[in-house]
Amino acid sequence: MKEEFAFLFPPPRTVRFNGGTLDIRSACFPLEVFRKFDFLFARFGVRNRARGLQVIVQEPPFRSPAKGSGPGSEEYAIDCMPDGVCVSAATTRGQFYALSSLLQILSFYAAAGAMPAFALRDAPETAFRGACFFRAEATTAAADPPALQRLFLDLALLKFNCLALPGDAATGEWSALAALAQRTGIEVLSLDPDPDALSRLAPAGNRPASPLRAASGAAWFDFFLESCRAAKPGSGVTVAWSDHFLSRPEWIRKIPRDVLVLNRGAEAGRGDWLRTAVQTFKEHHVRQVLCPSLSGGGRILPAGRAAMDRIDAACAAAAAARLAGVLLVHGERQGVSCLPQGSALARFQAGCRLWSGRQSTPAAFAHWVLGGDEPDLFRVCSLLAQAENRLPYVHDRYLFEDPLLAPFSRQGDPRQVVAHYRKAAQYLKKREMAPGSLSGFLAFVSGLFEIIAAKVEFSSRLAVLLEGEGGAETLTLQAASLQQAVAGLKGLYQGLLTAPPGDMLKGFDFLCERFAQLGRAAASPDSRRGLLSVLKSDTRLEAQATPPEGRCLP
C-alpha cells in the first residue's frame, strides 16, 4: 500500500492510484445513506452538503479481483471518477466498511481540500472476527451510554463483526447498542466464561439471548442437544465452549452443523494443542474459533506483549487450519481488576491482522484512538506492552506486597527494579499527548510506576532506617509521603472504573494502613526494634522461588 494511505485502519487489500486529485471541499452523499450512518459522519467530522463531490452508493454486485466473482457479505469497492466517487457493497455491513474507509480518507485530506484519485478493493482475510468487552469496561461504560457507543463504534471501525458482552452485563447495556449493531451489521454475543454455558449469536439488531447453563457430565450433553433443537430459526448461532467436548471426544461427531465451538487458552495455536484439540473438531466439520486472552487475573495493567503474542499465534493458527476465526476474550480468570484501556494496542493490531492479514502503522493507531496524528501514542503503548519483560515479577507484586517484609523486592537487586520503573515513569511524563480516551489511563500508569519505584526503594532501605537512630525522621517522612501517594493512586483507579473490584481496593487500603503504622512506629525505639525483629525473622524470602499466580495481598 502506498504511503499516502498509511493512516487507514485496517489496511485495505488493494489500492491503486489513478493520478490526479479530486476537490473534496464539499461532498454530497445520498440523504438516505447520511441518515442511516449519521453516527459515522459525526465520528470523522465530515459534513454532507447539498452540492459538491458526488458520492454514489451502489448495492448491485460488482466483480472483485480478489475473489473473481460477486462480492460476499463484507466485500466493498471505492472508485474515484472524474466527477465523483462510487461506493459498491452488497450488504449493510459492507456499506458500513466502505463508508468508514471513505470517511477516513475525506477527513484526513479535509485540510488540504483535495484527495488523490484512487480505486480501492477490500475484503476480509478472516471470516469471524470477534472482540469481547472487559467486564469492568462494560460496567463502567454502561453508566455513560455515549461512551459505551463510542467503545462499540471503535471496535466496529476495526471491522470486528462480532462483539461479546459479559453474560451478566449484556441485558442492561443492549438497548444502547441495538441501533448501532443494526446499522453496522455486527452480531452480538452474550458471553459467559463458564464452560457449562451456552450462548447464541444474535443477528444484527436482535437482542442477544442470555447464556444457558446446566450441570456438567453426560446430562450437560443432553441439555446441549436439546438447546440446539429448541433454538428457533433466526435466533442466532449456538455457541459452546470446547471444554466438555475435549474431555468426551465421542460427543464431537454429534455436534450440529450450525454450532460454533470456542477454543480458549493462552496456548491456542501452538504445537500439540493445535493438533489435538483443533484437528479433532475439524475431522467432523465443526466450526470453531480460537480465543486468545487479552489479560490474566490479578493484574492492573494487561500483559501487553504476551497478549499480542497470543493473538498473533491464534491468528496464524486459524489461518493455517482454515478455522472460522478468532475471538479476543478479556481474561481467562475474569480479569475484573485489569484496566481495559491497556489493551488498546493489542485490540488494534488484532483487528488489523484479522481483517487484512497484516499489521497497520503507528499513524493509523493514533487516528483510531484520537482521530489525528500523534506518533508518541504508539511509542508509549508499545513501551507499556513490554514494560515488565526484563523484571522477575509483575507490577502487582511489587505494588501490593507488604512494604515491611517485601518478599519480591528483596530478591535480586532492588536497584534494578527501582531504575526500571522510575525510567518508565519519567518517559511517560515527558510525553505531552493530546487529550483522548487514554489520557487518564496513562496518567495513572505514570503514577503507578513512580509509586512502585519509591516503595521498592523504601523497602530496600527499611532495615537500615530501623537500626539507625538517625533514620527515624527519614522513615516518618517517607512513610507519610508514600501513604499519601497510594491514596491518590487509589483515587485515580476508582476514577477509571465505575465499579472497582473490592479485593483491589482492599490492597490499596492495606498499603495506606501499613505506611501509617510504619510512620507511627518510627517515633518509638521499642517499636522500631520490634519491626526490625519481624523483618529479620521473616523466612519467606528463602522459600520464595517461583511465585504462585495472583497478587501478594495481606
If you had to describe this structure to a student in words, what would you say it looks like?
The chain has helices at 31-36, 38-44, 92-108, 135-142, 145-157, 170-184, 218-230, 243-247, 271-282, 304-321, 344-356, 362-370, 375-385, 395-400, 414-430, 439-467, 471-496, 502-521, 525-537, 540-543, and strands spanning 14-23, 27-28, 53-58, 76-81, 84-89, 114-122, 128-132, 162-166, 187-191, 198-202, 238-241, 260-264, 287-291, 325-328. By secondary structure, the chain is of the alpha/beta class. Helix 15 packs antiparallel against helix 16. The N and C termini lie far apart (54 Å). The protein folds into three domains: 3-122, Chitobiase, domain 2 (2-Layer Sandwich), CATH 3.30.379.10; 128-380, Glycosidases (TIM Barrel), CATH 3.20.20.80; 387-543, Four Helix Bundle (Hemerythrin (Met), subunit A) (Up-down Bundle), CATH 1.20.120.670. The protein is built from 20 helices and 14 strands. The model is unreliable at 62-71 and 542-554 (pLDDT under 50). Strand 8, helix 6 and strand 9 (187-191) form a beta-alpha-beta unit.
